[in-house]
C-alpha cells in the first residue's frame, strides 16, 4: 500500500498516525479513569458512567450558550470554566446518587449493575425531555479548532492536543490524590480491609461517597472534553461505555496504573490496525486480542496482589 | 358500491332503448359524485373491518421517540402529524377526519414488530406511517404482510425490496447515488473516490452501487472503509485519506459518528471549501448538521432529493407551516419531507380507489401524482417507489444547503439494479 510515496510523505504519515494513537490513548484514559476509581476502589460497576459524561457535555453546552449571550468577550476562555462546572455538577450528582441509591447496595454487586443501568436510562430520558432528542451543537472558540502546521504534511489537531493535556493533568491529579494525600491513604485502607479501616477510625461511608463523587466528577470532565471530538446527545454516552469497560477490565479492575497501561495498549493496537485494515476489522481484532489475554490473565494486566 | 347497484338497474332497462339507459347512467354518475362529496357510507368504503366510522378514520404513526434513533425519527413524526392536520383542515379523507394512534418503536426492532401488530390487530388502523431504519422496516414487514396493512416508509434506503404492503416515499439507493457521482465527475472532474461509511446494510449497499458505477465510468475507487455505528475516533482514516489524496470522499457515515467525523476532519486541517478533497455525502441532512455544527461542514456537498432551501411555492408554504407547527428553530431534512408525503399519498390513493380497503389502495397507488409536494412533483411508480428529482446541495455555515444542481428529469426508482446485488 506504500507504493509511489516518497520517504518524507511516509514519515509524516507515520508521525500523524502516532499522534492519532496518542490522542486515542488520552481519550481512553479520560473515559476510563472515573470508572476505574469507582469500580476498582468500591467494586461498584457504574453503568451510568456514560450518562455522567454526557451530563458534563451538556453542562459545557449550557456554559457556552451563557458566555455567548452574556459574556461574548470572554468566549475564548469559556471552556475552562465549563470544565470546572462540569466537574462540580457531576460530582454533586454522584454524591447524591451514592447517598440515595448505591450505599444500600454495596453487598450486592449484581444489583448495583441493574440499579445503575436503570439510572442510565432515567438520565437519558431526562436529557431527552430537557434538551430534546436531537444532538446539540457545542460551539467551540475559534482557537480550539484547526490544526498546528508542523511541516507541509504533518498537522496536529489542536483539540487532540488539548484532550491530551487534560487527560495527563487528570491522571496526575488522581495519582497525587490517591498516593500522596491523606484522603487517598484512607481510600486505599478501606479497599484493602474495610473492617480494619473502620476499626482505626476511618469513616468508610464518607470515603465511599467521596470516591463515587470523584469518579463521577472525572466523568464530567471527560464529557466536557469530548464535546470537541464527538457528539452531544441524550444517548451519546452509550458510544463510550463499551470501550471504557474494556479498558478498565483489561487493565485489572483494582489498579489505576493498569488502567493507564491498558488504555495505552488498546489505543495503540487499535489505531495501528485501523491504518492497515478496515475500521470494523480493526475493532474485531482488538477485541479478540483482549479476550485472548483475559482468558490467560483473568484478573487483567495488573492484578492487585492481596492476601485472601 | 352505490354506483354499481344503480348502474345494474340501468342495464335491466336496456331493452327499452339506449337513450333511457344512457340517461340512467348519467344519473348514476351524478349520484355517485354527489355521494362522494357527501361522505359515502362506511360499509361501502371499508369492507375489511378497518377502524373507519362515518366521520373518522384511524391511522398509525410508528417511530422511535425514545432511544438512540429518536434524534432522527422525531422530524418524521412532526411532518406526518402536520400532514394529517392539514388534510383534516381541508376536509379529511372521503369526508372522514383522520385520527392517529402513535406508538413508540423505542429504537428497538422487536418493539417495532410488536407495535405494528398492535396497530393492525387491535387498533385496525387504515395505514401506518412509520419505520425509519432499514432494520425496523424489516422487522415490521412480515407483520404488515401477514395482516395486509399498508406502510408508508419515509427514509432513503438501500433498495433491494418491493413489498405490496409498503409505499416507499424516500429514495432507493440508485436515485441518490448515480446522479450524485455523475455530477461530481462531470462538474468537478473527479477521477478518484474514497468510500467511507458506517458498518451496516445501507452504507455497504450504497457503496457497492457507487463502486459499480465508478468502475463503469472507468474511474477509480482508492479506498473503502466501514466503521462500527457510534464510532468516535476517525483519526486513522483521516490519515489514510490524506495519504491517498482522493478527489472525492463519498461519505455515508450516520448518527453520532457523523459529529465525530466532521469535527475531527476540521481539526485535522481539512477545509471542505477548498474541495481538496471534495466531500459528497448521502447521509447528512439539515437535521444532522444541527448536531455537527454548520462551521464543521461548510463546503461539503450532499446528494438528496430535498433541501429546506428549495425555491418553489410548495416548499415555501411547507416550511412556513412546519415552523408554525413546531417552532421557528426547526430544520427540515430530506427524510422529514419524505415523511410529509406519506399521509398525502395515502389520501390520494384512498380517494382514487374510493375505498379504504388495502387491496384497492394498492391497486390505485401506481400512477398517483402529487403536484403539491414540497420537493416539487412526485409520482408513484409501479414498483411502489417514487419518481423524483435528485439534487446536489452545498452546505453553508448556517446549517442550510444551497442547491447547486438538479437533475433535468425525474429519476426512475430502480430498487433492484442489475448486477448490483
Automatic annotation (TrEMBL), chain A:
Transmembrane parts of this sequence: 20-40, 52-71, 77-97, 158-178, 212-233, 239-263, 275-296
Topology in the lipid bilayer: Multi-pass membrane protein
Cell compartments where the protein resides: Cell inner membrane
Keywords (A to Z) from UniProt: Amino-acid transport, Cell membrane, Membrane, Transmembrane, Transmembrane helix, Transport
GO molecular function: transmembrane transporter activity
PANTHER family, alphabetized: ABC TRANSPORTER PERMEASE PROTEIN, BRANCHED-CHAIN AMINO ACID TRANSPORT SYSTEM PERMEASE PROTEIN LIVH
Protein name: Amino acid/amide ABC transporter membrane protein 1 (HAAT family)
Originating organism: Marinobacter nauticus (Marinobacter hydrocarbonoclasticus)
Gene that this sequence comes from: urtB
From TrEMBL, chain B:
UniProt xrefs under InterPro entries: ABC_urea-bd_UrtA, Peripla_BP_I
Keywords of this entry: Signal
Signal peptide (UniProt feature, chain positions): 1-37
Source organism, top-level taxon: Bacteria
Name listed for the protein in its UniProt record: Amino acid/amide ABC transporter substrate-binding protein (HAAT family)
Amino acid at each position: 500500500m506504500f507504493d509511489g510515496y516518497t520517504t518524507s510523505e511516509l514519515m509524516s504519515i507515520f508521525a500523524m498516525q502516532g499522534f492519532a494513537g496518542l490522542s486515542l490513548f488520552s481519550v481512553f484514559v479520560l473515559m476510563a479513569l472515573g470508572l476505574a476509581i469507582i469500580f476498582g476502589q468500591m467494586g461498584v460497576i457504574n453503568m451510568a458512567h456514560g450518562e455522567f459524561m454526557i451530563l458534563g457535555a451538556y453542562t459545557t453546552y449550557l456554559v457556552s450558550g451563557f458566555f455567548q449571550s452574556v459574556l461574548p468577550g470572554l468566549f475564548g476562555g469559556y471552556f475552562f470554566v465549563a470544565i470546572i462546572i462540569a466537574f462540580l455538577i457531576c460530582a454533586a450528582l454522584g454524591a447524591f446518587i451514592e447517598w440515595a441509591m448505591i450505599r444500600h447496595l454495596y453487598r450486592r454487586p449484581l444489583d448495583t449493575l441493574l440499579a445503575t443501568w436503570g439510572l442510565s436510562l432515567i438520565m437519558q430520558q431526562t436529557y431527552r425531555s430537557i434538551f430534546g432528542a436531537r444532538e446539540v451543537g457545542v460551539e467551540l472558540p475559534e482557537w480550539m479548532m484547526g490544526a498546528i502546521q508542523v511541516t507541509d504534511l504533518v498537522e496536529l489537531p489542536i483539540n487532540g492536543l488539548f484532550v491530551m493535556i487534560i487527560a495527563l493533568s487528570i491522571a496526575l491529579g488522581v495519582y497525587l490524590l490517591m498516593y500522596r494525600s491523606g484522603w487517598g491513604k484512607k481510600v486505599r485502607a478501606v479497599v484493602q480491609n474495610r473492617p480494619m479501616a473502620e476499626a482505626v477510625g476511618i469513616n468508610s461511608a464518607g470515603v465511599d461517597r467521596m470516591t463515587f463523587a470523584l469518579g463521577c466528577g472525572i466523568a464530567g470532565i471527560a464529557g466536557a472534553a469530548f464535546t470537541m471530538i464527538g457528539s452531544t446527545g441524550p444517548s451519546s454516552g452509550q458510544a463510550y461505555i463499551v470501550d471504557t469497560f474494556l479498558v478498565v477490565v483489561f487493565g485489572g479492575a483494582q489498579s489505576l496504573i493498569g488502567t493507564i497501561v491498558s488504555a495505552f495498549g488498546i489505543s495503540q493496537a487499535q489505531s495501528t490496525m485501523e491504518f492497515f485494515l478496515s475500521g470494523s476489522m480493526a475493532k474485531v481484532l482488538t477485541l479478540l486480542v483482549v479476550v485472548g489475554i483475559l482468558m490467560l490473565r483473568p484478573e487483567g494486566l495488573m492484578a492487585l496482589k492481596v492476601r485472601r | 358500491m352505490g354506483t354499481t347497484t344503480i348502474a345494474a338497474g340501468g342495464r335491466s332497462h336496456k331493452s327499452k332503448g339506449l337513450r333511457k339507459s344512457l340517461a340512467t347512467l348519467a344519473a348514476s354518475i351524478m349520484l355517485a359524485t354527489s355521494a362522494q362529496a357527501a361522505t359515502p357510507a362506511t360499509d361501502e368504503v371499508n369492507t375489511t373491518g378497518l377502524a373507519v366510522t362515518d366521520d373518522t378514520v384511524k391511522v398509525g404513526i410508528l417511530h422511535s421517540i425514545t432511544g438512540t434513533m429518536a434524534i432522527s425519527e422525531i422530524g418524521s413524526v412532526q411532518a406526518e402529524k402536520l400532514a394529517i392536520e392539514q388534510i383534516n383542515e381541508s376536509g379529511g379523507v372521503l369526508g372522514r377526519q383522520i385520527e392517529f394512534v402513535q406508538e413508540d418503536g423505542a429504537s428497538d426492532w422487536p418493539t417495532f414488530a410488536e407495535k405494528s401488530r398492535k396497530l393492525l390487530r387491535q387498533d385496525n388502523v387504515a395505514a401506518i406511517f412509520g419505520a425509519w431504519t432499514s432494520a425496523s422496516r424489516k422487522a415490521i414487514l412480515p407483520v404488515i404482510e401477514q395482516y395486509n396493512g399498508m406502510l408508508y416508509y419515509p427514509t432513503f434506503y438501500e433498495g433491494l425490496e418491493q413489498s405490496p404492503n409498503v409505499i416507499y416515499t424516500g429514495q432507493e439507493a440508485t436515485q441518490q447515488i448515480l446522479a450524485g457521482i455523475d455530477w461530481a465527475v462531470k462538474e468537478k472532474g473527479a477521477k478518484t473516490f474514497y468510500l467511507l461509511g458506517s458498518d451496516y446494510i445501507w452504507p455497504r449497499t450504497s457503496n457497492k452501487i457507487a463502486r459499480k458505477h465508478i468502475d463503469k465510468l472507468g474511474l477509480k475507487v482508492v479506498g473503502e472503509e466501514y466503521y462500527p455505528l457510534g464510532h468516535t475516533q476517525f483519526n486513522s482514516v483521516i490519515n489514510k485519506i490524506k495519504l491517498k489524496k482522493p478527489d472525492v470522499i463519498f461519505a455515508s457515515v450516520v448518527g453520532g459518528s457523523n459529529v465525530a467525523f466532521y469535527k475531527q476532519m476540521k481539526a485535522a486541517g481539512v477545509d471542505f471549501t477548498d474541495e481538496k478533497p471534495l466531500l459528497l455525502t448521502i447521509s447528512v441532512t439539515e437535521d444532522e448538521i444541527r448536531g455537527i455544527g454548520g462551521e464543521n461542514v461548510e463546503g461539503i456537498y450532499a446528494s438528496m432529493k430535498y433541501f429546506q432551501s428549495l425555491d418553489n411555492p410548495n416548499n415555501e408554504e411547507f416550511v412556513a407551516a412546519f415552523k408554525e407547527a413546531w417552532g421557528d428553530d426547526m430544520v427540515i431534512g430530506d427524510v422529514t419531507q419524505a415523511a410529509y408525503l406519506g399521509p398525502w399519498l395515502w389520501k390520494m390513493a384512498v380517494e382514487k380507489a374510493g375505498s379504504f380497503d388495502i387491496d384497492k389502495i394498492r391497486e390505485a397507488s401506481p400512477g398517483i401524482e402529487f403536484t403539491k409536494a414540497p420537493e416539487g412533483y412526485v409520482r408513484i411508480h409501479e414498483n411502489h417507489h417514487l419518481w423524483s428529482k435528485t439534487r446536489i446541495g452545498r452546505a453553508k455555515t448556517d446549517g442550510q444547503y444551497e442547491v447547486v444542481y438538479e437533475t433535468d428529469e425525474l429519476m426512475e426508482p430502480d430498487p433492484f439494479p442489475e448486477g448490483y446485488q
